[in-house]
Write a structure and sequence with these properties.
The protein is mainly alpha-helical. It contains 17 helices and no strands. The chain starts with a helix and ends in a 6-residue tail after the last helix.
Length: 318
């Protein structure tokens, strides 16, 4: 059975590669346009937004300054979530700096032996989300949504509650397995050494993110061609292409979708799209953390978000 499944996968991947190659050769101008949009989004948004945080966070982690950095918040978040300061730091950066910093910082903390595997798996389950600056400055205006409170809660309040729920259910027996266990202290390194290592690591990470954004934006050509093939009406074609594109790469998909069906986009945001999953895998691939578990938690959060918006708009609003 396993051999047959591998056989099917081999021919499926070969077929998909052949189709994509043929599409690129037959529609070079369209493919170039989509790929260029992905490159521009990476250059204009991802690099200036994420790269400085990736370098700074890398320095803080390598110099073992995480406990001091969260000294004020640790008495509250540490007790509420029953986690150590290093986990509070990963949680804080994951929520404030946004995707994929949650996965990046979690992997770094784990690789630097400042948190255990169970702590890393726990953080990854709810801390890798769309950043609030990106959400407020790009997503809400693009969707023409003027209110912020209900959407901020849907984007960040739900993952926080989900993380709290996981801590007292799925991860409740992990206390003896790492959450309260004191890991061996690491020798601190000099600032310039930490900076050099952090810059190299950040450059590698941001370059991989750019590659994924360009590639998945290129895939937008597939729903676009499908809409042309079936001669879809203009309104439906935009919704179809935009919806599928959001599932492929969320930023480019939002650009295509615009303010059409904003609540569909809001429900897709917690999942992040296939590009986000691939980027998360890129961040954690050198560890033994499971991308499958990450995807399962994202699917649960997406379902909870859909339920939240269904309940929110099922009642009359003043």
């Amino acid at each position: 059975m396993k051999t047959r499944l591998s056989f099917v996968k081999f021919y499926l991947y070969t077929f998909l590669a052949f189709v994509l190659t043929a599409v690129i050769l037959l529609f070079p101008a369209d493919c170039l346009s989509f790929a260029l949009k992905g490159l521009n989004l990476w250059f204009e948004r991802m690099i200036p937004t994420l790269f400085p945080f990736m370098v700074l966070s890398g320095i803080i982690i390598r110099m073992d300054l995480t406990d001091s950095f969260v000294k004020i918040l640790n008495p509250v978040l540490g007790r509420l979530f029953r986690i150590r300061p290093a986990c509070v730091y990963g949680m804080l950066v994951g929520f404030l700096c946004g995707f994929p910093m949650g996965a990046h910082v979690t992997a770094q903390l784990y690789e630097q032996k400042q948190i255990s595997r169970q702590e890393a798996a726990y953080l990854l389950s709810f801390c890798n989300n769309i950043g609030p600056v990106y959400f407020i400055s790009f997503v809400l205006p693009m969707l023409s949504l003027k209110e912020t409170a209900p959407f901020l809660f849907g984007m960040y309040g739900l993952p926080l509650l989900y993380g709290l729920f996981l801590r007292y259910t799925v991860f409740q027996n992990a206390v003896d397995g790492g959450f309260c266990q004191r890991l061996p202290a690491k020798k601190r390194i000099f600032l310039l050494t930490a900076m050099d290592e952090s810059v190299l690591s950040a450059l590698s990470g941001i370059a991989r993110l750019g590659g994924y954004m360009v590639f998945f934006n290129l895939l937008f050509i597939l729903p676009e061609l499908a809409a042309r093939l079936f001669s879809a009406k203009e309104g439906f074609a935009v919704l179809f292409t935009g919806g599928i594109s959001c599932l492929l790469e969320i930023t480019g998909g939002i650009n295509l979708m615009g303010n059409r069906m904003p609540h569909l986009v809001l429900c897709i945001l917690p999942f992040g799209g296939l590009s986000c999953i691939a980027q998360t895998y890129s961040m954690i691939k050198n560890t033994d953390l499971s991308v499958t578990e990450y995807v399962m938690h994202k699917m649960v959060l997406t379902a909870v978000t859909v339920l939240y918006y269904a309940l929110l708009y099922s009642f009359p609003r003043a």
